[in-house]
Fold these 4 entries.
Entry 1:
Amino acid sequence: MQDMSRITELDLRGEVCPYTFVKTKLKLEELESGEELKVILDHAPAVENVPRSLKNEGHKILGIEQKGDNLWNVRIRKA
């Protein structure tokens, strides 16, 4: 069973690349290995770029869920 207290949320609505990746990476640095981060994005290029860049750094992308026309939740588990 997943410990819901270990999920941190980062709302990046209004941010664009490359700031979306930089801010996500900085937030991940605050977390312990294995913890989950949910990032809220409204910039379509970031939905492709952020997960790809984080995966290249060894983090696990748990899912990308579109919540509206221009709103996505990206779930990441820190390596």
Entry 2:
Amino acid sequence: MYLSYENRQQPVKIIEMAEQFNIPRNHLIKVVNKLAKLGWVETSRGRYGGVKLSIAPEDLKIGRVVGELEESLQLIDCDAGPCAFNLNCGVKTILDRALVQFMQELNQYTLADVVQGKTRQEIKHMHLSYIATDG
């Protein structure tokens, strides 16, 4: 969401995002690397390097983001532990169907949709305040 701010001249530094969102830098590096492998961001090194979106916000579906970034979307794992029903219950089927519906709902929205209105204003404020203090 932070990278969606369109009036930024230079790529965003990882340290900036880490400070803005109080996220450990090393964790953020892992996330950025994953986003780069997915082709959603471009990264560059050096003084003028950083991170920027490489996909239009209106082309990035929220369900796809959740699906790619979560290690597992499985709500329950019937193979993980002892279960008295031994896979003979309907809970997993219901949860699996609900998850499909959930992902379909998320995929009706894009990054552009979620960064509208007050969110867009907050992102702008964050960028401008950071640039004013550090840039």
Entry 3:
Amino acid sequence: MKKHFFFILIITLTIVAGAVSWSMFLRTHDAQDTVDVFDFPMVIGEWESENIPISDNDYAVLETRNAFVRIYRKPTGEEVMLYVIYSQTNRRVAHPPEICYTGGGSTIVSKFPEKIATDAVTDGSITANRLLIDYPNYQQIMYYWFKVGNSYTASYWAGQAMIAWKNMTGQSSSSALIRLTSVVEDDDQQRAVDIIRGFAAEILPLLNQYIP
């Protein structure tokens, strides 16, 4: 009888704890981040950057001002645009960027997952989403992935599940979207891909330091 009672008690407490954790996960948080993504280096090796302004309307959509868009350039002419959005408490800030590309005259021609670099911290490969985007006058290659604490994923839903799990287990559940783009010049998509992949390899060791 006692064993039966304690078994029911444990199950009940587990359900209650799960419900409380899930409600906390779904709640909109207004707490201020203690990490400022603008501290991310503007000079990385040969790459030098400039900030691109984000409009107040875009900030409102993002639900945070802890985000930046930068163009990084090398003296040899390569250019990459880096977009980072981050929150330590609001899981909704990191959403798939395709949502923003449904209008404005752009078309997503292709999308597929691809390993982009190796994370020296976890000794594992980072898988990103690779997109080819058509604009009226040019094409663009995009790679993006999500970072939850020190974990990486190309899947939005896997990222949301990671946040829920890390919340319930008391781990860091900060959420970030990292997006890299490069314009396709002279119909040379591979060159744009190589530029992004080379830049990604340089910034990856910095992500856990500046975007924990």
Entry 4:
Amino acid sequence: MKIVAILGSPRAKSNSTALARTILHQAAEQGAETQEFLLNKLEFKGCQGCETCKTKLDHCVVKDELGPVLEAVKAADAVILASPNYFGEVSGQFKSFFDRTYSWLNPDFSSRLIPGKASVFVFAQGQPSLDMYRDVHARYEMWLKRFGFARNYLLRMNGPRAADSVSQRPDLVGQAEEIAHELIGGSKQA
């Protein structure tokens, strides 16, 4: 099984990154092949709205460091999408990445991806109430389902916390470990 993590925080030791890496580590211990991309370290543009992926090519025409990331997700069995909450939304780095996934859709908006992948959406927010920003995952999950992701998990960290303080939340570490087991277990059944 191949699992790719897209890390959308500009901080390498952020809480969303730590949770994503917990899942990766657990999955690797169970034999999964894992890979991570820290978006803030890559040079890339957002979608240019050129429509070349709909009219001339079956992939994004922009040649930058995001191209291999988009291809890695295509080849993966599961993807972890991790971001902090910035003004009630994902980070700008993550949003620019996600806009480029437009190239995964055919002109009729059917998916170019192999169906049946799994996704994990990791979202860290300073706001203590999990009732706030519930809509963020729903918007992205809608597109993930359109892309053919069959199993979609959500892992949210709430409350003001210092960077890399996930170790103070054994409940979330436990949830991350359980998700890793379900990803691996689900792939063996498929």
